[in-house]
Structures are given as structure tokens and as C-alpha cells.
Amino acid sequence: MLSGARRTWPSVRRSEGPLSMLPTEPIFSRHAVVIPKPLIRWDIGSWFGRGSPAACDSFVMESMNMAELRVGLGYDLHRTIIGRPLILGNIQIPHEKGLEGHSDADIVIHSLIDALTGAAGLPDVGQQFPNTDPRYKNINSAELLKAAYAVFLQAGWRLLNADFVILAQRPMLSPYKPAMIKRLAELLAVHESQVNLKGKTGERVGSVGKEKAMACQCVVLIEKT
After folding, report:
1. What does the DSSP 8-state code read for residue 174?
2. For residues 216 and 83, what is the distance between their CA atoms, to the nearest angstrom?
3. For residues 143 and 157, what is the distance between their CA atoms, to the nearest angstrom?
4. How far apart are CA 78 and CA 191, in angstroms?
5. In the prediction, which pLDDT does 42 show?
6. Distance between CA 141 and CA 184 in Å, rounded?
7. Is 146 helix (H, G, I), strand (E, B) or coil?
8. Dist CA 35 CA 203 (whole Å)
């Protein structure tokens, strides 16, 4: 701001009418900041030369009918073993070690299933596909995801985005990141921009850092349809 220029602040008004019905938490919009305790509105709509108090009230009331959103967190870890292929995100990664498990031990897909089912309040991957069931011995984890995702969709949920962190000392995963993202987006029937994936080492500390195991964390945001 130039020296000597005068700053103009928005007016403060007591809220009336529909705003008295608002919950006790603040609501933010480009038109207003509504703070129900006490009920005060910063009428910045007129400050910018647009909107009105009535329009602001309408906007806030409509915003209260927003969609139901939930966040889910998934995690999986498997020990490394010689003699098995390394499958991550339904992509085979060239490496001298794979992951030990009842299925193909795809930690990326397993963490994704747990994130989706956790957010939606559905049975987790171990409940739906127990490692004591011979039907799932060496199964492609993409088949598990397809089954779990069908239940997820039937329950009335939609995936907005999924974010993964793969924890592995070796191999370097960056060359395979595009292929994994593409495959996961295909399985989830979403755009590739809705799937993100990062690789982290264990800094040679712990089971991951000493290459005794690999792990994956997944966070999802879902919306009720």
C-alpha cells in the first residue's frame, strides 16, 4: 500500500433472519465470514462492490446443504522375500525381492482398500478377504480392489482423490510412478489427476530402511452421492 493511503475496512453488522439458525462454528465464503457466537457478519460483498446482505444469507444457507465428505486412512506392511515378484499398484517392479503374503502382497492396493472401506464404514481388507481363505491364495490384488470397490460404490460413495506414500529403501520407484498412477486410476475409474503417489526410503533405519519390509500409506477423500 502507498504511503499515506487510507485503508478501508468492511462494516460489521449484527446477523439477523436466517443466520440465527446457523450452527455454532464459523462459516467462511467469498461473501462473508459468519461467526454465530456472537452473531456478527463481515459484509465484504458490498466492500468489493458485489453481492448484498440478502444474497450473503442465501449463499450461506445453501452452503449448509453441502455434500457429506469423509477422509479414510489405510496402511499395509509386508516383509520382503527372495523368489517372489514385487507388485506395487498392480504393476510388476523389477527387483531381486518381492513381498511375502497370502495374496500377491500388493501393499499399495491393500492400503487403498483399507482407506476406502474405513472412510465408508465398511469391513476392511482383512475382514472381506481373510488370509485363511484358500480362494485368495496368490490372488491378484486388483481383483480384491474390484470387489471391495463395487461394495463401496453400491453403498453410495464416490472417490474424490487418493494419495499414497510407498515406503521402500529399494528399488527407486520414480521410474514406475506414471504406470502405477495410470493403472490405479483405471481400476478406480477416475482421472489420473485424482491419484497421487510418492516414494520414500527408510533412511536405512528400521525394517524398511534395512530392506526387511516395505509399507504403504494411503489417504482418500470420498463423497456421498
Report:
1. G
2. 21
3. 19
4. 29
5. 44
6. 12
7. helix
8. 46
Confidence of residue 80 (pLDDT cuts 50, 70, 90): very high
* Residue 151 and residue 122 in contact, taking contact as beta carbons nearer than 8 Å: yes
Q: What is the DSSP letter of 75?
A: E
The DSSP bridge pattern shows strands 157-167 and 195-200 to be parallel
The packing angle between helices 141-154 and 107-120, to 10°, is 10
Residue 33 in any domain: the answer is yes
Domain residues for 111? 69-224
Q: What is the pLDDT of residues 86-112, one digit of tens each?
A: 999 999 999 999 999 999 999 999 999
**Other residues' Cβ atoms within 10 Å of the Cβ of residue 110:** 27
User: Treating both helix axes as pointing N-terminal to C-terminal, what angle do 177-188 and 141-154 enclose, rounded to 10 degrees?
Assistant: 40
Q: If you ran DSSP here, which 8-state letter would residue 9 be given?
A: P
Q: If pLDDT is split at 50, 70 and 90, which confidence band does 54 have?
A: low
Distance CA 152, CA 142 (A): 15
- Residue 38's pLDDT is 43
Q: For 183-195, how does the pLDDT look when each residue is reduced to its tens digit (9 = 90+)?
A: 999 999 999 999 9
- This prediction has a pTM of 0.73
Residue 3 maps to a domain: no
Task: Say yes or no: 165 and 217 in one domain.
Answer: yes
Q: What is the pLDDT of residue 26?
A: 52
